[in-house]
Amino acid sequence: MSSFEYLLQDINSIKGIGSKTSKLFRKKNINTIFDLLWSLPRNSIDRTNLVKINELQIGKIQTIKIKVLKYNFPRIRNLPNRVFCEDETGKIDCIFFNSYEGYIKKVLPINSTVTISGKIGYYKKKYQITNPTYVSSNTDSIVKVFSTYSLTEGLTEKKYNKIISEVLKNIPNLNEWLSDDILKKFNYISWKDAILELHDPQNIKKKGNFLSRLIFDEIISTFLINSRVRKSIKKIKKKNKFFDNNEFNKIKNKIDFELTNDQKIAIDEINYDLKSNQKMFRLLQGDVGSGKTIVALITSINVISSGFQVSLMAPTEILAKQHYNLAKKLFDEDINIKILTSKTEYRERNKILKDLINGNINILIGTHSLFQEKIKYNNLGLIVIDEQHKFGVKQRKKLSDKGGKNCDILVMSATPIPRTMIMTVFGDMDTSIIKNKPKNRKEIKTYSKLESKIDDVIKFVKKQVNQKNQVFWVCPLIEESKKVDHQSSVKRFEILKKIFKNKVGLLHGALNKEEKNNILLKFLNRKIDILVSTTVIEVGIDFPNANVIIIENANKFGLSQLHQLRGRVGRGNNESYCILMFKANLSQNAKKRISILKSTSDGFKISEEDMKLRGYGDLLGFKQSGLQTFRLADPVLNEDLFLLAEKEVRKIELENQNLNKYMNLLKLYDRADILNDLV
Fold first, then answer.
1. What does the pLDDT look like over 426-443, one tens digit per residue?
2. In the prediction, which pLDDT does 141 show?
C-alpha cells in the first residue's frame, strides 16, 4: 500500500476504533482517515493551569490536584457512584455514572493524591466533577492543551483526541502538486505540515499560511476538474450549424421590443459556438426578467435551419407551456413545435415520440421527461435547460453525452451569483451574462411596512384588484407553528377570503402536482385575483398581469430569495410593487437586508451582499442540492485565492500539462471520479 492510500483507508483501520466507535463516526459522515482529518477542531482546552478548589469556575473545564477521602457506592440502581475529595482550600465530589467500583478504586485509591480534569459543576452548595475526563497520579500526563471537536453521543473528548493523535502520527509525506512559483510566492509549507498545523490546538482560529495552503488546494482541485470537463467537451468535433440570415432576421423582427446590448452580445457568443466545429457547453445567466428565453429561441433558428432538432426543458409544466406559446408566436408555421409533459394524453404522446424519431418535429418543449430513456431524437442539435442551476458537473456531463457529439448545450439560470461562485459552480462551462433588462420593463417599486399596518396593505390590495391587477401574497409557513411566530399561508388565506370572497387562491408545497397546476392556471387565466402562497412561486412562473407581491415576515428570507420573489411581478405594462412586511423588533442584519433590497434591483449586487451576510452554502441551496461544497474555502473571504487558482489553471491549460501530478490532490478531494468519467 502506498503512503497516499493510507489516507483513503476506512476508519476501522485506525488503532483504537472498533465496530461500536466506527458506527459513531459514520453518524458524522466520517468514513475514511481523510474524512477524519476534515473533522476540524472547534476550540481548545488548556489543562496546563492547576488551580485550587476555592478558585474553581462553574461550567469551565479545569485541572485540580486532590486527596481521596472516601467512597459512596449506593446499592440502588441508576444512582451514581461518589468519591469525596479535598485539597487544603475546600472539598469536591467526583461523580461516576456507569463506572464499576473496581475501576474507581484503582484510579482513585483512598488517601492517594491524584490530578483530575473535567467540567466543574455545583450541587447542594458543593463543587463536583461528573465523569472526570482525566484521572492520573502523574500530573505531567494531564498537563496539556487539547483541541475540542464536534462530538456525537458516545464519543468522549479524550477518545477523540487519542484517535486524531494516532492519525496525525501516521500522515504520509505526499509528492508536491503545487507549482514552485505558488509555493515560493506564498511561502507555503507542505500539505502534511499544513494538516498538522490545522489540528494543532495552539492554532485554533489562527489564519496562517497553513490555512491558506489548504484552502488553495481545495479551490484548485475544483477548478482543475472544471477545466478538464471543458477541455474534454471542446475536443468533441461536431457538425457546425450554418446561418440563414433571412430566418434569423424574421424572428428578430417579430419581437415587439428592442433587444438589450447584453442580449445582443449573448446571441453573438452563442452563435459563434454554434457555427464552430467544437461542441458548445455554455451557461446563459441573467437576472429575473432579463430575457434569456428570447435569446435561446432566437439562436435556435440557426440550429433548425441546419437540419437539427431543438429540445427545451423547463422546471414546471406551466413554464413549459409559456415557452411553447412564445415559440409558436415567434416561429413560422412550417416549423413544427410540440410540447410534452405529464399532462400530454397517451395517443398524442405516442404520436410525438414517433414524429420525433422520424425528424418531423423541429422543437420539443417540456419538463425533465424530455430526457427519459425511451425518448429518442432523430438529429438533436441543441439542448436548452431552463432554471436548472442545481445541476452539478456530473449531471451536466451526462446530459451532454446523451445529446450526442453534434448536440450543443445551453443552460439558463435566473439566479445571479458573484463571479467566484460562477467559477466554482459553472466553471466547466463558458458563460454569457445578461445584466440589463429590456427597456419596456418598469422598475418594481419596493416598500417596507410594519405588520401592524396590515389594514393599509389590504386597502392598497383592494385598489389594485379593482383596477384589474393581480396580487401574490407570500407567507413563510403552511400552518401555524408554536415555535415560530410567522403568519401562515393557511391563516392568511382564510382572512383574505372573508374580504375578497372567491377571488383568493391558496398554493403551498403540501399540495400535489395536479392541485398546484390547477391553482396556477386559475391565476394565469384570471379566475382568481389574489394568490396566497409559500415560496413555491419563487421560480418557473411568468404571470404578466401580476403587478403586486406582498411578502410577510420578509426579514426571515435571504436577500437572493427576496429578489427572486420580487421578480415574479413587473412583467407586464402596469406599475409594479413589492411590499416587505415585518415586525417592529428587527435585528440589524434584517434591517440591512431590507435596506439593500429597497436600494437596488441589480440581482448580481444583491447576491454578492447576500453571500457576505449568509455564506455561499445557502445562496444556491447547496445544502439541499447535493452539489460539491467546500470544507474551508469561502468565495467571499478567499476571493483572491479563487482568482489566483483560476490564473494557475489557465496556465496549466496553455502549457497542456498532464494531470498525473495532481491525481493525489483530486482523489483526496473527491474529484477523481469525475475525471475518470472523461477518459
1. 777 888 998 887 776 778
2. 67
> Is 617 inside a domain boundary?
no
Query: 473 pLDDT band (50/70/90 cuts)?
Result: very high
Q: Share the mean pLDDT of the chain.
A: 83
Alpha-carbon span 195 to 208, nearest angstrom: 12
Q: What is the pLDDT of residue 356?
A: 92
* pLDDT for the residue 66: 94
Q: Do 89 and 133 fall within a single domain? A: yes
| DSSP-derived secondary structure letter, 74 | -
Q: Give per-residue pLDDT as tens, 617-662.
A: 554 444 434 445 677 888 878 888 999 998 998 888 888 777 788 8
User: Does 269 lie in the same domain as 122?
Assistant: no
User: Does 587 lie in the same domain as 496?
Assistant: yes
Domain co-membership, 63 together with 115: yes
Distance between CA atoms of residues 545 and 458, nearest Å: 19
What are the backbone angles phi and psi of residue 651, rounded to the nearest 5°?
-65, -45
pLDDT band at 515 (very low <50, low <70, confident <90, very high): confident
Please answer whether residues 674 and 394 qualify as being in contact, where contact means their C-beta atoms are separated by less than 8 angstroms.
Answer: yes
Using an 8 Å Cβ cutoff, are 30 and 163 in contact? no
β-bridge pairing 546-551 and 470-474: parallel
Task: Report yes or no on 470 lying in a domain.
Answer: yes
Number of structural domains found in the chain: 4
DSSP string, 570-596: --SSS-EEEEEEE-SS--HHHHHHHHH
Domain that holds residue 679: 173-236+639-679
**231: enclosing H helix or E strand:** helix 209-234
Residue 196: how many other CB atoms lie within 10 Å? 17
12 alpha carbon, distance to own chain's centre: 31
Residue 485 is which amino acid? D
- % of the chain residues with pLDDT over 90: 24
pLDDT reading at 672 higher than 50: no
Question: Residue 325: inside a domain, yes or no?
Answer: yes
Among residues 262, 248, 379, 362, which one has the least CA distance to residue 312?
A: 362
End-to-end CA distance of the chain: 25
CA 364 to chain centre: 31
Provide the Cα torsion 130, 136, 141, 147; round to 10°: -10
| Count of Cβ atoms closer than 10 Å to residue 585 Cβ | 7
Rounded Cα distance between 387 and 675, Å, is 26
Residues in the chain: 679
Does residue 397 register a pLDDT over 80? no
Residue among 309, 311, 281, 234 at smallest CA distance from 400: 281
Are the CB atoms for 599 and 448 separated by under 8 Å? no
Confidence of residue 358 (pLDDT cuts 50, 70, 90): very high
Q: Last residue of some domain: 413, 434, 455?
A: 434
- Could you tell me if 642 and 424 are in contact, meaning their C-beta atoms sit under 8 angstroms apart? yes
Give me the pLDDT at residue 484, please: 43
Range from 105-109, 239-243, 267-271 carrying the lowest mean pLDDT: 239-243
Q: Is 58 exposed, middle or buried (0-12, 13-18, 19+ CB in 10 A)?
A: exposed
Cell of 370: 424530455
Residues 615, 616, 619, 620, CA torsion sign:
negative
Same domain? For 475 and 417 the reply is no
Q: Cα separation of 648 and 219, whole Å?
A: 11
Pair 223, 270 in one domain: no
Could you tell me if 263 and 396 lie in one domain? yes
Q: Which residue has the cell 502523574?
A: 138
What's the CATH number where 593 sits?
3.40.50.300
pTM score over 0.85 = no
Radius of gyration of the chain (CA): 31
